[in-house]
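Cross-check.
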Amino acid sequence: MDVILIPGFWLDASSWGQVTPLLEEQGHRVHPVTLPGLESVDADRSGIGLADHIAAVVDLVDRLDGPVALVGHSGGGAVAHGVVDARPDRIAKVIYVDAGPPADGDAINDELPVVGDEVPLPDWAVFEDADLVDLDDDLRAEFRERAVPLPAAVASDPIRLVDERRYDVPITIIACEFPSALLVEAITGGQPWVRELGRIRQVEYVDLPTGHWPQFTKPVQLGQAIAAALPALG
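Predicted model, tokenized:
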């Protein structure tokens, strides 16, 4: 199956480097993507918003034959959900890595510190302790070395969703920062931040306890979890 890997904020296609081979070993055709404005530190990020990131992945889906699976990490989960809304008949499965589907009108994170028209990787103090579990000093240094500033509008633009067929596409959530039981509890309690997740008809939860970047802290376990969540090859 064609599997598109969508990175979270500040990351490009290479961030999936330790995960991709594990999926290819299972016979999948893997397509890690670098989203617009993330090509390099010197890339032009002016005028790039969330819709542009979604459109870039929709274009890739349109160039592939047959059903496609999407894997979205963190903010990449919102991109994946936008792609499902645009192409619900083409997406066989969505896997959210420490992420979830946003509701229409939601922004990914409009509280991150903006510098000009971009959001550089902030100081680690900006993040919660749960984000940084297992991200040791060496991994933090490696992350900061590879980080590319995010186009600011990607974080703050409201997502626009129009096709309710998106609720028919099965998903798996790989929960890292906190156990999936908390998500289920939030849905049961009617919490607004999971209102979109609560409408999806087929949801599977997988717990992978670590911080917010399991592709760095537990890449083998993440690759195995993604492979297990993908539809069987026909």
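Strands lie at 2-6, 29-32, 68-73, 91-97, 118-119, 150-151, 171-175, 203-207. The longest strand covers residues 91-97. Passed to J.P. for a second look.
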